[in-house]
Design goal:
Shape: elongated
Number of domains: 2
Largest sheet: 5 strands, antiparallel
Low-confidence stretches: 1-46
Number of strands: 32
Radius of gyration: 23 Å
Distance between the termini: 37 Å
Strand order of the largest sheet: 2-24-23-22-21
Number of helices: 4
Length: 440
């Protein structure tokens, strides 16, 4: 990755240490912007509370916020005592969980009725649980790491193994049991004289690889939330959180991506929160990456008024009259979702905040881009072959059929293809993929 050369400007890599505070509002929204309740219910007996493992088994992930540990659907697993900063939570390899609160280091073995206080008065960054022949050992801290035996609560020497790495440049990597490694690189930032970010040179990107072979790479930082970190990676699914540079303890946007299942993306907003998967690592082989929702991997533009399109994924309004067998033109636009959509709309002077349907399109320049279409271009449509309702997973369309539809004047369901925005994937200066974006 390259940055412009300049002797007078300092470019640095800001390693993400996004922490959060505020309310632990775990309002979960799927990629179609449906909202999940956060009403709490605590599993109890007539005596002391116990953990209801059935709600854990039904959940894909748990979150630890300032008011305890919750499932993704808002069911409380356990009440904890909050600490200032991120309320950490990691899973062990046997299906249990470990966390820190003001009481110390807690361990909830799989199917245990209650957590046990493994080590009181422990403070530090909870990183991971490492399996050893003598039992699970917790790692706390990156640079000055120390290790605690969960069974005895005693500090021990650094064991072999471990899945979380930390580079000299501040990048944190996660190695799953199937051999896949996930890391976020960047963002690369130009600082002002006071050490504050002036400009994002390269946004944060998620890179998943096996050995020296790249599986997938795409941007995960956005214009308004450029800093990103990994909360958990199981070899197939990854939980990411992104947020702004300031305030120091901001709300963050969490996203769960399933690399093998495009429609399985989920996002939610929360603060003072850490998230961890339930269950063990995946045995997925890394083939067939399916990031369906292109806005999750699109180039993070602030404006459509740009002078160059590098390889990547962009939103465009395809100009029907320009669609030919080997080329087409489109009007570049910028797509924002979630809190980014509200920020962008507010910056543009819009008054309807929050924005309808959780998205906002910025399209001001009117610049038309004409590009060649690759012979092997892939096209998917939400309205192709639809009778009354769209198929938001996307239906493959032969490119010749796409050309015919775009040059037709019919106003039936297929007419939506001419008016909807499209995600345009560019590789080597050619359009290699077109995915229709459903507009409610």
């Amino acid at each position: 990755m390259t940055t412009p050369r300049s002797l007078s400007v300092l470019f640095v890599t800001l390693a993400l240490v996004l922490t959060a505070c505020g309310t632990s509002d775990v309002s979960s929204t799927t990629s179609t912007s449906s909202t999940v309740s956060t009403t709490s219910t605590t599993s109890t007996t007539l005596g002391a509370p116990v953990v209801d493992w059935s709600v854990i088994r039904d959940a894909r992930y748990l979150v630890h916020g300032i008011d305890g540990i919750w499932t993704e659907t808002g069911l409380q697993v356990w009440k904890t005592e909050p600490i200032f900063g991120p309320d950490s939570l990691v899973r062990d390899s046997a299906g249990g969980f470990v966390w820190l609160d003001t009481g110390g280091l807690w361990w909830l073995p799989k199917n245990a009725e209650r957590p046990v206080l493994a080590a009181p008065d422990i403070v530090g960054d909870l990183i991971e649980v490492i399996d050893t022949p003598s039992g699970p050992v917790v790692r706390l801290g990156y640079h000055d790491a120390f290790f605690v035996d969960l069974a005895t609560g005693e500090r021990v020497r650094e064991p072999a193994g471990g899945s979380v790495g930390y580079s000299e440049t501040g990048n944190v990597s996660w190695l799953a049991a199937n051999g896949l490694r996930a890391v976020i690189e960047g963002p690369y930032v130009e600082l002002d004289d006071e050490g504050q970010p002036r400009q994002i040179i390269e946004h944060a990107r998620l890179i998943v690889s096996r050995g020296s072979g790249l599986i997938v790479e795409f941007p995960v930082g956005t214009v308004y939330e450029p800093y990103a970190r990994i909360h958990d990676f199981d070899g197939q699914r990854v939980i990411l959180a992104r947020g702004p540079y300031e305030p120091a303890l901001p709300d963050e946007t969490f996203t769960l991506l399933d690399l093998a299942c495009g429609p399985c993306a989920t996002s939610f907003r929360s603060a003072a929160t850490w998230a961890a998967f339930t269950g063990s690592d995946s045995d997925w082989d890394g083939d067939g990456v399916a990031i369906q929702y292109r806005y999750l991997v699109a180039e993070p533009l602030r404006s459509d008024d740009i002078t160059m399109l590098k390889d990547g994924v962009y939103l465009g309004m395809v100009q029907p009259e320009t669609v030919e067998a080997d080329s087409l033109s489109f009007d570049l636009a910028v797509w924002f979702t979630g809190e980014d959509a509200n920020r962008a709309a507010r910056d543009d002077g819009e008054t309807e905040i929050p924005v309808p349907n959780d998205y906002y399109i910025r399209n001001r320049s009117g610049e038309i881009w004409a590009l060649p279409v690759a012979p092997t271009v892939v096209v998917t449509s939400v309205w192709y072959n639809a009778d009354t309702a769209p198929d938001t997973s996307g239906v493959p369309v032969p490119y010749a059929e796409f050309v015919r539809i775009m040059n037709d004047d019919t106003e039936d369901m297929l007419g939506n293809l001419r008016y909807d925005p499209w995600w345009v994937t560019i590789e080597g200066g050619e359009i290699v993929r077109l995915d229709e974006q459903y507009i409610p």
